[in-house]
Amino acid sequence: MVRVVLDTNVWISALNFGGKPAQILKIAVKKQIRFYCSQTLFAELVGVLRKKFGYSDEKIEEVEVLFKKRVKFREPRITLNVVKTDPADNRVLECALEAEADYIVSGDKDLLNLGNLKKIKIVNPAEFLRIFKEI
After folding, report:
1. CA of 125: how far to CAs of 55, 68, 75, 78, 102, in Å?
2. Do the beta carbons of residue 24 and residue 133 sit within 8 Å?
3. What is the CATH number of the domain that holds 130?
4. DSSP letter at 15?
């Protein structure tokens, strides 16, 4: 099973706009990949959904149900300072290390510019879909 941490921007795109991020979620529904997230990343997602997209409590509950079904939570035991320009990006890296992820999928240039973290590949949604077809 492929272990993946989706950056908040990918979740936002999947839930609100569809496209390649939503295709990644469909793969998980088929249980070919396993998503990992931390409470910190989930709180960031909920905050953005409420503030920028006006999600109601009921809509947030739907997201929570989705997460309970499809996402395993891992709480990082380390703190990183790899991305200096946006320290919040380090939370994604920390979660991926804790989850022993194979991939981080992100649209964030700071993360994508890293290319990888130890054995974890950092890719955008389109690249992940291309790679996944080869796995």
Report:
1. 24, 22, 24, 26, 14
2. no
3. 3.40.50.1010
4. H
Q: How far apart are CA 112 and CA 18, in angstroms?
A: 21
In sequence order, the 6+-apart residues with CB closer than 8 A to the CB of 48 are 8, 12
Per-residue pLDDT of the chain (135 residues; tens, 9 = 90+): 899 999 999 999 999 999 999 999 988 877 789 999 999 999 999 999 999 999 999 999 999 998 988 899 999 999 999 999 999 999 999 999 999 999 999 999 999 999 999 999 999 999 999 998 865
Give the list of residues 6+ apart from residue 22 with CB closer than 8 angstroms, or none.
13, 14
DSSP 3-state assignment of 79? Answer: coil
Q: Which of 42, 40, 48, 14 is nearest to 28 (CA)?
A: 14
Give residue 58's domain range: 2-134
Output the six-digit token pair for 84. Answer: 């200096």
Nearest to 21 by CA among 43, 45, 38, 54: 45
The number of distinct structural domains making up the chain is 1
pTM of the model: 0.93
